[in-house]
Amino acid sequence: MTEIRHFTSRSYEWVVEGDIKACFDEISHSALMGRVRARVGDKRVLALVKAFLKAGILDEDRVLRRTDAGTPQGSILSPLLSNVALSVLDEYIAQASGGPGASRNDRLTRRRHGLPNYRLTRYADDWCLVVSGTRADAEALRDEIAGVLSAMGLRLSEDKTLITHIDEGLDFLGWHIQRRRKRGTNRRYVYTYPSRKALAAVIGKVKTRCRQNINLPLEALLRQLNPVLRGWTNHFQPGVSSISFGYLRAFTWRQVIAWIRRKHPGITWRELRRRYCGNGWWPADGDVIMFNPGKVRTTRYRYRGAKIPSPWPNVA
C-alpha cells in the first residue's frame, strides 16, 4: 500500500491491477519443480515437494482426485510454492530495463524517448504494476506479464485484470488508493482509505456476533467483538481512516444496544444505562468495556524502499 502510494504520488499514474485466474489450481508442476531444482539440490527434498504436489485432493464426496497441476490449498507448502512460482514475475520486472534496477538517468532517458518505467508490488497472488507512461504502455506491459506467467501455466483474468488511472482509484489488499484534491486547496495528493469491501466485511462480522444467543452475558459478547474491532483498526490505522472508524463505532454501538434490548424486552433507557453502561452511554460489563474504534488515532507509514532496519541487534 505504501509503495503504491509513494510511486503514484510521482509520475507513476497508470496502474495494472493484476488478477491471476485460479492461481493455486493451475500452476504447472514441471515448471514449478524446475524453479525449485534451480535452488535445491537434495533429491530427498525434491521428492518430498513433488509428493506434496501429487498428493491429490479429497472431494466432498470423499473421492480422492488427482492433482496434475496447481498447489492444493490447505497443504503446508502451498503458500511457499505459489510464491516460488510467482517469483518469475518478480525477476522479470527486476531485470527489465524500465524496472527498479534502472538508475535515475536511465529512467529520465527512457521517458525522453517515450518509453515507460514501472514498479511491481506483490503480496502472494495479489499484485499491482505502477507505470510511468501512457495507458498504451500499461496495456503492453499487461500483455508482457501475461506471457511471463504463461510459462508457469498461469493466466490473467480478463475481467478482473484492470488498467486504472490513479485519479480513478483502485482497491488493493483492503485499501482504496486514489488521488484527490486536498480540501480547501487546489493541490492533489494520493490518499489511502479502507475500501468499502473491507468496511462491509468487518460490519458483517459485528452483525453476525450480535445476532447470537441473547442468553449469554454481555461480557461474552464484548469478548468476541473487541478482538475483531481492535484488529481491524490496527490494520487500517496507517491511513485516512478516521471517518471509517467513526462509522464503525456508531454501527457497533447500535448493534450492541439492540442486542441488549432484545435480551431485556421493554427495558427503559434509564435502566439499560444503569445496568450495562455505568450510567453513561458506552456498553461495559464489569471490567470488560467495548472497544471504541473512534478513539483510535491514525498514523502514516513512511516509505523506506528496500532500507528496512533489522529488528535484531548486531552481534559482535
UniProtKB/TrEMBL annotation:
Q: Which InterPro entries match?
A: DNA/RNA_pol_sf, GrpII_Intron_Splice-Mob/Def, Mat_intron_G2, RT_dom
Molecular function (GO) terms for this protein are: RNA-directed DNA polymerase activity
Q: Which PROSITE patterns match?
A: RT_POL (PS50878)
Q: Which key words tag this protein in UniProt? A: Nucleotidyltransferase, RNA-directed DNA polymerase, Transferase
Q: Does the keyword DNA damage apply?
A: no
Has keyword Transferase?
yes
Q: Where is the Reverse transcriptase domain?
A: 1-177
One Pfam short name: RVT_1
PANTHER family, sorted: NUCLEAR INTRON MATURASE 1, MITOCHONDRIAL-RELATED, PROTEIN YKFC
The identity of this protein, by name, is: Group II intron reverse transcriptase/maturase
